[in-house]
Structures are given as structure tokens and as C-alpha cells.
Amino acid sequence: MVSLADKMAANMDMSAFSKATELKKRLWFTVLALIVFRLGTFVPLPGIDPKILSDVFAKNSSGILGMFNMFAGGALARMTIFALNIMPYISASIILQLGQSVVPSLAALKKDGEAGHRKISHYTKILTVFITMIQGYGIAVGLEGMTGSAGLSAVVNPGFVFKFTTIVSLVGGTMMIVWLGEQITARGVGNGSSLIITVGIIANLPTALAQTFELGRVGSMSISLILMLLAMVLALIYIIVLVERAQRKITIQYPKRQMGGRIMSSENSHLPLKINPTGVIPPIFASSLLLLPITIANFSSENGPSWVQSLSQMLGHGQPLYLFLYAFLIIFFAFFYTAVVFNPEETADNLKKHGGFIAGIRPGKNTAEYLDYVITRLTVLGAVYLTALCILPEILISKLSVPFVLGGTTLLIVVQVTMDFVGQLQSHLIAYQYEGLIKKAALANKKRK
Predict the structure, then answer these.
(1) Minimal CA–CA distance to 293: which of 313, 310, 315, 320?
(2) pTM higher than 0.90, yes or no?
(3) Has domain 13-203+221-448 been given CATH number 1.10.3370.10?
(4) Cα separation of the two ends of the chain
């Protein structure tokens, strides 16, 4: 049964939402920007025969290309201007973040505040264009080598003009998605890049469910197995919500202190540390980093040398080499991104400046070492959780030929981004409620005067 307090909180949220005009504008902007993204996934690259392309892609849909097509919302199978989605931008972000740990000039920009952030963002976009050009050239060469069942080429007029138009179209499409993501983050609700990836996954969900039920209808998969898969999906969603909301709370004590003419009593607070502080970043980064070599290997395997064909087979979905690289990259980025978002020395210094301390731990260096010890243990748990969540369902799905959208990676992205989106909505509503209370208090004071 729902308690009276929960009903009152829900009524307050609904009443606040009905009056929050700014939030409504942000939601409408987000929806319209995502609609523009979806429309772009249907604008084809020039010079490609769609029938032959669909025939060629059908042969490779069960491989790694099918997975990246899922992230692109079907744009890769249709070979549209949004075929690469936002993955080149994510790859560029990875390279720049790694560079900040190695290159002193980039590390200095990180400390320059807003001005440094703008420069890093500018460098990221330049690197995105460069990466997209390389991937676009690989796709153009691969398309020229593709032939359908009748021996006809997927490209109508192969040559320099086709390569040039393909590269320009893909660069323009990718930068359009980057711009849309930035606009959603600034003028909409939620993280634009994550929402774009999530919308692409959700767009494939009806087709994936239809394919799964079709396997049951024709007898390729038993009804009990389909029910088991659906139960596995529900269990994974429950585990994701449970782990993503779990926190390790470190008690922070503040002693008695004098502020002005008042003596403040001692207080206790908590420093919350998530079990998985990196969220969906490691799987997305790992997938993005694998995209370039796997795409080139798959597109070049048909008419390429034997070692390229062998590499393409080893990097196939569910193959040991692919699973090993995917797991290694997830673990690496789990530790790397945790080091980026949480600095034990900086946190310890901030606690010391404000007079806070952890019981039994000396302020300063000892506090930093303790926080580093705790966050390292949490990162190990988070890395194991992410690896198991992303790898184990992939093995099962590759053996049963189930659509990728039912895998752990996609469920993690969809659930995590949805939770973040709902959290930002609640933050906007709470801010609006506080703003309304402040206005009411100001009017009441005027009336009293």
C-alpha cells in the first residue's frame, strides 16, 4: 500500500510539474532534438544500392556489426549519414582524457576552469573530425568491396567521388549529432550523448522482441527458453537498479566550532560513494574503442588478405578474443574513469579545510590514503559487476542468436540513463518548488511590513 506521505509527495510533484513552464520547454526541446536525430538515421549516403546493401548486411547482422548497428539506432544497416552515431566523439573524448594524464599542457588546461574546458572541448571536436574521416574512409573502401548474392556491387559508381562524398557525409552527420547532444545537455534535460545512444537502442527494441518471438513461432527456440530470457532481462534490470543505487557511506564528523558570535555544535554527515561510480561510461568507452578496428576488419574481410579474414572472425560477436578485449577495456576504463571523477587527495584537503574528519583517521595524508583504499575496493566490485553484466549475457546471446538489445550492455545503458533522466527531472521540480516557496515568503514579508 502507498503511504499518505508518498501520495502527498506525488501530488506535489504533479502540481509542481503543471506549473513548471521552464521544465516543460526543456522537455519539448529534448523530444524535438531526439526526433531530429531519428530522422537523420533514415537519410542514406549517396551512391549506394539499398537492396544490395541490405542483402550484404543481413549476412553480417549476427556479428559485431549488428551490435554497433544497435547503438546507431539502425543507421549503420541503412548506411545513413548518422551511421557512426556519436561513437567518434566518445573515442576522441577517451584520447583527450588519457592525454590529460600524460601531457602536461592538457593537464594544465583541465585546471584552468571554464576557459580550459572550452579549449579541451574544441580539441575534442577537431579530433572527432579526424577520427570520423578515418572511419569514413574505411567504410567507403569496405562498401566498394561488398557484393550481393548476384555478384553486383553495393556502390553504384565506385571511385574517388564516392569516397569523398561518403567521408564528407559521415563527418557532417557525426558533427550534427555532437551538436544535438550539446544542445540537449545545455537546453534540454539529461546528458545529450547518453540520451542519443539510449534512443537508438530503444528504437530497435520492438524489432528485437519481434525477432525473438518469431524464433519461437518457427520452432527455432522453445517457449520455455524465451520465457527464461525474459526472466533474465527482468532480473538484470533489478540487479542494475539495486547496484546503481547502492552507496558506501563514510561518516564525516565536524567538531564544535565558532562562527561569528555563535558556537556551532558538533555535527555528523556522510560522504556517499557509489559502488559503480563510473555508471555506463566503461561499456560505452569500450564499445567505442573497439569500433574502429572491428569495422575496418569486417568491411575488408570479404576481399582482403587471409589474415584480415582471420582477424574478422576472431573479433566476431561472442568469440574469445572479442570477449577478452571487451572485458579488459571495461575493467581498464572502470579504474581510469574512477580516478578522473574522484580524487582522494583533493577530497581530503576539502574536508580538512572545513574542519571535517573521519573517526579514527587523521586529517590530511592519512584521510587521503583511507579514501583511496575504500574507493579502490569499490572500483574492484564495480568493475567485476560491469564485466559480468556485459560479458555473461553476451555469451548466452551469441550461442542462442538472440538480438543484441536484450544483452547486459544495452540494459545497463537504458536503465542507467533512464534513472539519471528521472533524477534530473526531480531536481528541476525540487528547484521549482523551492523557488515558489521563496517567492511566497517574500510576499508574506512584504505584507507584514
Answers:
(1) 315
(2) no
(3) yes
(4) 46
